[in-house]
């Protein structure tokens, strides 16, 4: 019974939030930018140990 209640809670709470967030904005920014030279993200060097 507990599994069934968790399943219902998941589909009534988590799934609509995920769908709405995808409709509003792309969380991973997967859109193509035709003017971009590269999609490489440079990272800051990590400090020496």
Could you please describe the fold and organization of this structure?
With 49 residues, the chain is mainly α. 47% of the residues lie in helices and 0% in strands. The chain has one helix and no strands. The N and C termini lie far apart (52 Å). The mean pLDDT is 87.
The H-and-E topology, N to C, reads as H
Uncertain residue ranges: none
Shape, per Cα inertia axes: elongated
Share in β-strands:
under 5%
Whole-angstrom Rg: 19 Å
Number of strands: 0
Mean of all residue-level pLDDT scores: 87
* Helical proportion, percent range: 40-55%
What characterizes the major β-sheet? none
Span of the ends, CA to CA? 52 Å
Count of discrete alpha- or pi-helical segments spanning 4 or more residues: 1
Which structural category fits the helices and strands?
Answer: mainly alpha
